[in-house]
Amino acid sequence: MRRLIPPLVALLLVAAGCAPPRTGALGPAPAAPSATTTAPATTAAPAPPATRAPGAGPPAGSGTPTLRAPGGPDGTRDVQLWFVRAGRLAPTRHALPATVATSRLALAELAAGPSPAERVDGLTTLVPAGAEVTRIAGGVATVVPPPGFDAGGAVVVRTRRAQVVWTLTQFPTVRRVAFAPAGTATGRDDYVDLLPPIVVTAPVAGDRVASPVTVTGSADVFEATVSVRVLDAAGREVGTGFTTASCGSGCRGTYRMAVRYRRAAAGAGVVEVFQVSARDGSRVDVVRVPVTLASTG
Fold first, then answer.
1. Among candidates 136, 240, 256, which has minimal Cα distance to 185?
2. What does DSSP assign to residue 249?
3. Cα–Cα dist 207/219, whole Å
4. Each residue of 223-242: pLDDT tens digit?
5. Are 91 and 130 in contact (CB under 8 A)?
6. Are the CB atoms for 40 and 197 separated by under 8 Å?
7. 144 with 116: CB under 8 angstroms?
8. Which of the four pLDDT bands, split at 50, 70 and 90, describes residue 79?
9. Taking a C-beta distance cutoff of 8 angstroms, is the pair 201, 45 a contact?
10. How many CB atoms lie within 10 A of CB 58?
């Protein structure tokens, strides 16, 4: 887990359920039905080791809005951060010291960017240093961006803002974010199109997992069916499974499943989450999460 600047709280992606989820062992690729459906998902996941020392808290009397969160037995709190992969939002989780966590420090963590393991996994950040939350009132956090925040073109700027909005709105006191000087307050719904078809919130890059490994996230996929493979370092399939997300008719829903695998010795591996193509049965919208697999004995 990374130990970085002071903490925050964990995220929720909530979507309406359309059909009861099902799970099971994954045999041959599911045949493509005639109708198209889609699904949502949400969750949270841990993060790789930190390479930066935790940041200091805000100076006394600074007036910076703060967000307090209880810590775990080791004095840390997992905080979800939304980075970018291939132009789409992608979540990870960092362990931060469980002291007073400020909104300013949350943005500083976004600006500091992914860990080395997360960068290998394709994550990056568009958020520059210097953005600060100056006010939280009525569920709206006001963010004062640094010079150059709106540079880079409309697509880049919108994705950058989405990173800030999805990260700050994980806290119960923040539902929307307004960018000064006179920006309209926006929430997660305004950036849903920047999510990939499959979001994996657990596990995250660098996690150590054991069988059965719990896989969570959100998805908008064909017939709401989310499939998972567990691969060893050589790319051999050591476990499979599938489930349905909580929504499956052109909407995003949450999913959660436990996938068993068999491995004689601990070592590197990959949790691969995907949907089966309705056209040719191939794996599409693949999300690969590098992990360490515990031995199954």
1. 136
2. S
3. 21
4. 999 999 999 999 999 999 99
5. no
6. no
7. no
8. confident
9. yes
10. 18
